[in-house]
Fold each of these.
Amino acid sequence: MKMINAGLLCLAFCAAATPARAQVTWTDKGFVNVNVGFQAGSHELSVTSPFEIYDETGTVSSVTDVSTGALLDFSAGYKVWRNMAIGAGFSTTGGSSDAAVTANVPDPLVFDQLRTVGSTVTDLNHRENVFYITGTWMVPLTTKFDVGIAFGPAFFSMKQDVPTSVTVTEPGPVIDQASGEISESGVGFHLGVDATYLVTPRIGVGALLRYTRGSIDIEGATENLTVGGLQLGVGARFRF
């Protein structure tokens, strides 16, 4: 949380400083950015799903601390007016985590007799893709160094391993295996700052600080899953 607050404060400071240099004209026609980095943040996901066993319906509930990690990001924009560029981008990130699982398992001999058993499932994969439309206001600071303030809507797609069914070993019962996957999408926003240093008139290096946030409705979840987070990246910059 401290990292996210610091990132948002930095974004606000850079955005506030923009008007002071807005009179400087950006001379390039467009840009292409490629970044590698990291997305910080984690969110809890609680899901309950039914499953069939012994000709009855049981339930399996899981609590997963969904987290992300390595980030790959591409974006491009074209100047449409003064220092304003309109473009689009794509980023992908993912990670893995464990889940605490509780299952209510029917009895193989006695009807309507549920038995509660718990377990932990490891290495549940999470993949988060974001397609975003961006407006970028470019702020040239010198002939070789500039800053872009980017903002716009973001469209999230997410895949998450979630225990939606269990394999039970008797007597016990004991959860021998829990598996399943959900795939959903949602809408949010992004706000970021990108700094570029041009090594040549057309090629440079840069750093990215961006915050993304979205909400995804998942069937069986106690509340919507928050996706996105604070993104940090470095990479190549191309101008034309």
Amino acid sequence: MIRDNSFHWSLSFTPAARFLLGIIFVIFSGPLTTTAQTLTGDQLGNGLSISVWNPHTQCPDVAPLVAVEIDPDRYRFTVHYYQQDGFSDPLDIRQWQERTGHDLVFNAGLFRENYAYLGLLYGNGRSLGSKRHATWRGLFVAEPAADGSRRARVLDLTFDTFDEQHIPYREVAQSLMLLDRTGKIRVRQTGKRAHQTLVAEHGNGHLLVLKTTEVVSLHALGECLRDAFPSLRQVMAMDGGSSSDIAVSPSLQQATTKMARLHSWIPLLEDSITTHIGLPAVIGISPRQETSGAKAVDK
């Protein structure tokens, strides 16, 4: 009886009343649509935070991801290649972190069975022996040669230019473009599922390194980011499978023990891959040693 009366009462609304209710619905439903992209976690440094992003409500097929947010104005990026660093064999992700001392290290991209990197790879302004891949359009770049440029970003070679005769950035790694600035997913839907590491450019100028905690297809991941994380401008996929890896320095992990909260990202990061394989190339981040406080601007 109450249900019938309520239904009849709702049908008697004037158009103006229905319009007003529509506005109220939008206002109060707004926060629910943005919670999936709100990152709240551990502040590991001034400009470095790590959290768990769970898009399950909007993406039922995508498990939680570990999300590392990096402010390029406060953290420096460095590309490493094992031969250039004087190692006879590739190191696993934990060894890379120990040898380099970076606060955080993640896999740099795809490589052949002989550990030759696939695509452009530059460290400290020098080519590390690889050539431009003809079809991969994603390009991570950092540490610009010219003052005033953004210190790290994701370029899309479909729209952006990169002059190899006059290298505009000292640190460069090429890989697959996953999601571009138009919202287009740039990988095919193959059904193949694996662990993934992504590098994304945020609308606020920060970079996000995203690491899956369960296997997923790249196409499904691209759809999820497009629909549930609209503040990401463009996203590139680094190497996946057993090569998908991130290492956080033990000192930063120990620092979290002083924080009175559950650090859910630690077991997810440690347990997502059982075997850490040798990686020929990685990207590390460390705090900038600058005192001027000058901040780069976007050109």
